[in-house]
Amino acid sequence: MTVDRMSHSFRSSLEGTLLRIRNEIMAALITGFTFLSVSSIFVGATGFFQTFVGYILLGGGASLQMCLAVFLITFSTYSLNKLTDMTEDSINMPERVNFIRDRKQLILFTSLGAYLVSIPLAFSVTPKALPILFVPLLANLLYSSRLLPGIPRMKDIPVMKNVFVATSWAMVCTLLPFVDISNVPRLTVLAVLYFMFVKVFINSILYDIRDVDGDRVSGIKTIPVLLGTKKTTMIQLVVNSTIILLLIFLDGPARLLVAGMMLYGYVFIIFFSLCQNPLLLDAFEDGEWMIFSVTYSLFA
13-299: what fold? Predict the structure, then answer.
């Protein structure tokens, strides 16, 4: 009996130690990923890999400098947006506000510095990239400003936020690879532009579903606020289905990549309409481009 008790005590102690180690590892991983998310480093990586996918779909070898330039632009743009969206984020993402509150000047200078560094990086690949680099800034200006007296700002018009975000990033992540690659058929470029637009449009609506409570309190009329989650999810599924029309303009591994991302889209649209966990959403929505870029590189 004594030996049995000692054995049982040892097993219990070992199980407790392993459980504690597992919990500490999970806590460290969550803390690390939360930092990557709230600091905009992770969404910057999304810009890097989305540009990488743009190169793949246009049939060219990816330029590391160009992908890094988009990483810096994405990091900069989203960091600046977080400084202006603290009211909504105090409800939707309080950990983001806690991170930003005492670092406003650091985030501002880091964001501006990142954008400035992106310019010579992209210019070193091709001077044609220069005007495309300013598309996100121009889109933000048009989106946030009142262009004519008595006319509402674009950000006050439902759906326009999603259209502006999707259009600007589709242009950046498609046109930068395009100006670096020669002899790409125009129909292929248009097909890739539309694919990028659809993916970013859907993803931006997923974040609106996550942020619906804060947006409703702030009076922001997003699609989920106006239509509810169920109808919004149906719209996303229909829009995602239009990607299938693009497969006729692509071939080989590019066609498989687009088909795979379309199927992936169905899964996360349905899953994240039910589960609005912000860390999971960042990991599997923003991380989609990374997942498919790595998979393509390993098996293409």
Answer: Farnesyl Diphosphate Synthase (1.10.600)
